[in-house]
Input
Amino acid sequence: MKKTMLVALVVLATGAAWAAEGKLGTEVDLTWASKFIWRGIDVGDNKAAFQPSVNFDLWGTGFSTKIWGTWLGGPTNGDEAEGPTEKYEYSLTYANSLNKGDAAQLDYALTYTYADYYTTSSEDFDYQDIAASFSLPKIHCMFVPHYTVAYSWSGRPGPTTGWLNSGSEGFVHIVGVDYNFKVSEQPMTFSANAIYNDGTYGEAVDHDWCAVVWGLSTSFKCPFTGGKVVPAIYYQTSMDDSVNENDEFWTTISYKISF
Output
């Protein structure tokens, strides 16, 4: 199943790219996170994670493919999470814009992801996810509102096993806004994202707003390689104990290079 999904993504994306003229773009991203927080859930149980990825922009067609991995750090930052945490994600995205250049410009993206917990049985832990994202980048000179709706289900046919064998499939909604500003000519982004979990990723998970994630990030050019360095800090106000009983604070730093 895992190999089939990967081959299918490559074939679909490559077929679309052959039909267009343009340049194949590649971005390598090396990210370290002090915690692995995902859609309000503390996946790594307070442990740091190394999360590299490679993204291929397919010849300017609007299609891109991505391979992303995550590996938790040592046991010094918290207990081991229940179940496997090491995984690969294979994604295919189509992104485009409506009313490009106008104040009413709408950027949208549709992403399919297969999550492969490669250290254990696909039947028990793998899942699939499809997410549609929308943003209005021109509606204001500093504020960018955005919305994402995602649906997750089993990585195997038949009754869903859910994420981490929880027995639940369903939707997650994320609505937020980015505020872009400068401090001494240094670009900064303050973000706020509210997460609504519609009873997903666990049999006992409530249908409720589960968290608000506050973030502050910046970026600058690496003077040695020309790559981009992106440090960020985040704070999560958790509102639903069935998803996360604790508020969370974590940091990330990414190094990105494109060619």
User: Anything to note?
Assistant: Helices lie at 2-18, 122-125. The chain is about 10% helix and 55% strand. Residues 2-20+38-178+196-209 form one domain. The chain has a mean pLDDT of 88.
